[in-house]
Prior knowledge:
By secondary structure, this protein is mainly alpha-helical. The chain folds into 2 domains: 13-59, no CATH class; 63-184, AhpD-like (Up-down Bundle), CATH 1.20.1290.10. The chain has 9 helices and no strands. The protein has helices spanning 18-29, 35-40, 44-60, 65-78, 82-94, 99-107, 116-131, 136-143, 148-171. Helix 3 crosses helix 9 (148-171), helix 4 runs antiparallel to helix 5 (82-94) and helix 7 (116-131) crosses helix 8. The longest helix has 24 residues, at 148-171. The protein starts with 17 loop residues before the first helix and ends in a 16-residue tail after the last helix.
Amino acid sequence: xxxxxxxxxxxxxxxxxxxxxxxxxxxxxxxxxxxxxxxxxxxxxxxxxxxxxxxxxxxxxxxxxxxxxxxxxxxxxxxxxxxxxxxxxxxxxxxxxxxxxxxxxxxxxxxxxxxxxxxxxxxxxxxxxxxxxxxxxxxxxxxxxxxxxxxxxxxxxxxxxxxxxxxxxxxxxxxxxxxxxxxxxxx
Length: 187
């Protein structure tokens, strides 16, 4: 982790305001209140306004779960957002990513074993991170398979998780119990 302790301490459920409970109650009832949400519980108005967009990107976008997770894991790695990366290793595995796929995401778009379209997804995340724009060759590869909504969701997925990575790193959100950090994936 970039910070050894949180700059903003997560707010435990018993201390949530009614507004925070309105946003996070279903997660808490399901036993899924992670440190990111307990941290955001300190600012319920922001949480309430951010959640619809975050839910679109994670649950309702036009991307397949595998392709979405490739983008999220790559931007999390590029931002060195250990919390984000660790959470999405778990989600990515549920979406069908293997450990070899995850290592390839870490290694980048030129790593051996990528098929061209998935390499272009990784490259798109790299270009958005580096240049704030997808290059014409990468766009052409993506647009050969993706329609307008998928192309837009790919850009917004990387943008959303770039933002989240910045927040996690800056606020010092610590790994939840049971998550593995970067050590396994560094070569």
